[in-house]
Structures are given as C-alpha cells and as structure tokens.
Specification:
By secondary structure, this protein is an alpha+beta fold. It is built from 17 helices and 22 strands. Strands 3-2-4-1-10-9-11 form a seven-stranded antiparallel β-sheet. It is globular, with a radius of gyration of 23 Å. The two termini are 36 Å apart.
C-alpha cells in the first residue's frame, strides 16, 4: 500500500503535490518523493521519512513546473531505510520517464531476468516498481514510431505492460515532453481515481489513490480509473483514455474498506465510511443470533478505523458506546514493525486506557482486524488492568489466515495468529472471554450493498484465493522466507550496521 498522485495544471504544481501527499500520508509513512517537469526537464526530491520531514522550503522552490507526480511509500516490515528505493523512479532511455507505483508485481523476479537478458535493461534496486518502470520504458521504445510518441503508441505500450506484468499495480508516470500517464491493473486491485478543476486558465487534472485527495485540493471527482484502463493528459491539457486489457474484471481489495483507506474516501463508487457502518450492523446481527448470552455493558472501539463499525454495532444492540482508549498519533502501525518485542512496546506507547470506562464493566472491544494478535493481546491486558470485569472482542473482518501478495506487507502465514487456529484457540491466545469474527460473506455483502455493481473482491488474506491466478505454493514459500521475523531481524540488523558505518565515514 502506497499513496500516488499525478497532476497536470495551468500553474505550478509543487504545492498541490505536497498537500496531496499530506492527505495520503496514511498510505505510506516510510518515504516520500515529488517530481515536477517543465517539458523535457525533471526536478526531483525524495527521501526517507514523513512528508513533512522530507521536504523543506528550499526543496519546494526547486520543484518547478506545471506537471508532476508524487509518492509516499508504505513502511515494509524490517525494511532498511533506503532513499534509493523511495519513489518516484527515473529512467532516461528511450524517453525520460518518472514513475510511482502502488501495489506489488507477483512475477517481478521473472521480469527482472527478462529485462537483463532480452531487453538489455539494468535494474538497480530490489523494488518491483523499478522493474515496472523499465518494462514500460522498453514497451514505449517498441511502440514509438521513430522515437516519436503519440497517444496510440503510449496506449500500445500499456497493453504490452498488461500482457507481461502480473499482480497489482496502480501507476502514475510523467513522460518528458509529452504528459501524464496513469493506469490500473486488469483486476483493479489497488485504487486509482481522477478528477478535474476549472480555473481561469483552463482545466487542471489530478490522479490520486483516493478521492479524499481530490476533495481537499479542490478537484471534482470524475470517476475511478477502470481496471486495465489507461488515461493520458498531455501538456496542452488534451485528455485521452483507452481500455488496454483484453478481459478486465474489477476485484477491488476488500482490505481497503476494512482498514487501509480513509473513511471519507470513495473507492470504486463506494463510500468507505458507509461500508464500515454496514460492517458494524452485520457484526451486531451475528451477536444477536449466535452470541445472545453475552451481557455487554459498553462497546469500545480500538481507534481509529474501527470507530464507525463500533458505533453502529452499539446502536443496533442498544448498548452504550464509549471512547476507552486515547491514541498517540505519532507511533507507526504495529503489524508491520520488526519483531514481537518492538510491536508490544509500540502498542503501549500508541494507546492508553481511560480506566473509568472499564472498571467493573463487561466490555466489548471492536477492532477492524486481527493480524498477528500482538496489538489485541496488549489491548485486552490493558482493559483487564483497568478493571474490566469481562472482556469480549469483535473483529470487523474475518480471520486473517493468509499472506497478502498484492501490496500489503502482512507477515508470513505462520506469524498470523489465525493461521492454523480455531476461534476459541485465538480467543485463548489474546486472552478474551469471547471472540466474534465477521463472516467473509457478510463482509463482502456489507461492501457490495453500497455498490451492487461490484460482484467480487480481492480478499485473499481471508480466503486464500488469489485472483490473478499465478500465485503458487512455491511463490508463497519464497515470500514466507522473506517476511518471517527472523529474516526481517537479520535484514534490520544489517541495515543498522550499514547506517552506523555510513555515519562514522561521514563524521
């Protein structure tokens, strides 16, 4: 999960891109980058850290131009701080291209070999986004007529990208001297929308991961980029679009609605906030039918993304809703932090209980999901330490039993608390008196009820079904080896050692 933006304007775009990244900061807190362009010249600044820390006034002054793209990177578990892998990426042959990517290519290793052996291209990092950039550059070279680009050549190149690349990808790219290109994989797994703004100088165009970026920047949402579709805006403001995939089928990632996206966003015609209300309704219905013996005094959400579900659940059950935890917003997400000890410490730093809301009560805690269970264990313990009589726990999503391979860096399967365990065993592990999970069918119905035109979703972390059809047992074994805590700890140690050496050399 990352945040991407692309804009073509009749005025400077640096402030638009910066403000847009701030709005999309929840999609990536590890690194950020902006590239602006004046016809054939790119201006780039990127680095590790939050948007506010990466860019200074002097950096913004250098980002001149009326077109640009921006990216904020999702913090992967145990990843080394590496400005080299922050985005956007740049390639200068055969055309100057900068690219930002949200998602994950499942055939990245094979593509890298093809680039080396057949396309005669060099990939300098371990990022699949750089692989994608080089595939696009190669196909643009093959499609261009005497190294002259036009919309037909660019769309033909995207068609070739779709034929070669597998997995999830929402992409923004700027092509020097031509314009802004954006496209989405044929399954539409990762979100991408575009909008317009009318000014006294003409029409501006903005592409973004979520509609909330358009809202806050004064753009009108036009629609989502369709699965397999590419859109193109040239420097003169001419807009083009084309379906570039043979059999596109929309399968939006259902975890976007559960947790990843901001509640005030619209994704594929669906209000994220409304889906979370519906999740609360279906959870309440399950409690009323299958857990009627529970004597619940108060419903308390785990802030922030579970609030709408918890409020609607409490309302439907006729039970008091209370805020029982205060959140420190300056702590990163715990399920993607390296090592159990670090995650446990981070939970205590991130949340603090309000004792009066727990003391002597039977409490139903509501969270959006349970991944490793580390956060849940600590929160339950905090509730008991605050005097709760009984602690029940409801998850707005089903058990997470399988790794995600489409851009969400969930841990290896063996480190998912639900993998190989029954609901009762999970309840025992996290220390609750009763555990209630959302059913997958109910979750899908909750999202689909807001937009009945969507018939299916990418829900592999719950079901184990990978919609692209190319995820094999061997592939999963490979990512298992890369994602387990021991492997991540080794990489983290190596990165820390290298950082220390660099500081010594610089000192």
């Amino acid at each position: 999960m990352c945040g991407i933006l692309g804009v073509v304007s009749n005025g400077p775009v640096n402030q638009l891109l910066y403000d847009g990244l701030l709005v999309l900061q929840h999609r990536g807190q590890d690194a950020a980058g902006i590239v602006t362009t004046e016809q054939n010249t790119f201006h780039m600044h990127k680095g590790d850290g939050l948007v506010r820390d990466v860019f200074r006034t002097r950096d913004m002054r250098n980002l001149v131009g009326t077109m640009g793209i921006a990216h904020c990177r999702y913090p992967t578990a145990g990843s080394a701080a590496s400005a080299a892998e922050s985005q956007p990426f740049y390639v200068n042959s055969p055309f100057g291209i900068v690219l930002g990517h949200n998602g994950n290519l499942t055939n990245s290793d094979r593509l890298k070999q093809e680039l080396y052996r057949a396309d005669l291209r060099h990939v300098n990092t371990n990022s699949d986004s750089e692989v994608l950039l080089n595939v696009l550059a190669h196909e643009l070279q093959a499609s261009a007529r005497g190294f002259r680009l036009d919309p037909d050549a660019i769309f033909s190149a995207v068609e070739a990208v779709h034929r070669r690349c597998r997995g999830a990808y929402a992409v923004v790219a700027a092509i020097a001297g031509f314009g802004l290109l954006a496209f989405r994989d044929p399954y539409g797994i990762r979100p991408l929308v575009f909008g317009q703004a009318s000014t006294d100088r003409g029409t501006d165009y903005l592409v973004a991961s979520e509609s909330v970026a358009l809202d806050t920047l004064g753009f009108r949402l036009v629609r989502d980029v369709r699965p397999g579709e590419a859109i193109l805006v040239d420097f003169e403001g001419n807009f083009y679009s084309r379906q570039c995939a043979k059999n596109p089928v929309l399968n939006p990632c259902i975890f976007e609605y559960v947790y990843l996206a901001r509640p005030d966003s619209m994704i594929d015609g669906i209000s994220v906030y409304e889906t979370r209300l519906r999740m609360g309704e279906s959870l309440a219905d399950k409690i009323q039918t299958s857990h009627r013996d529970l004597d619940i005094d108060v419903v308390i959400p785990i802030p922030d993304s579970s609030r709408p579900a918890a409020m609607e659940l409490a309302n439907r059950l006729g039970v008091n809703y209370r805020e029982g935890f205060i959140k420190n917003r300056y702590i990163g997400r715990t399920f993607i932090m390296p090592g159990q000890a670090v995650r446990r410490k981070s939970v205590r730093q991130k949340l603090n209980a309000i004792g009066v809301e727990f003391r002597g009560k039977n409490v139903l805690l509501v969270d959006d999901s349970i991944v490793r269970g580390t956060t849940s264990q600590e929160i339950v313990q905090m509730a008991r330490e605050s005097g709760a009589n009984k602690v029940f726990f409801a998850s707005a999503s089903p058990p997470v039993r399988f790794p995600n391979v489409y851009g969400i860096d969930m841990p290896s399967a063996k480190e998912l608390i639900a993998n190989g365990r029954s609901d009762d065993e999970i309840a025992h592990e996290i220390g609750v008196d009763r555990l209630i999970y959302q059913d997958l069918g109910a979750l899908e119905d909750a999202v689909r009820s807001v937009n009945p035109e969507i018939s299916q979703f990418e829900s592999s972390c719950f079901s184990g079904h990978y919609v692209t059809g190319d995820v094999t047992a061997e592939y999963l074994a490979g990512i298992e080896a890369q994602r387990n805590d021991d492997s991540l700890a080794r990489r983290h140690s190596i990165a820390s050692t290298q950082l220390d050496l660099n500081l010594v050399e610089a000192g």
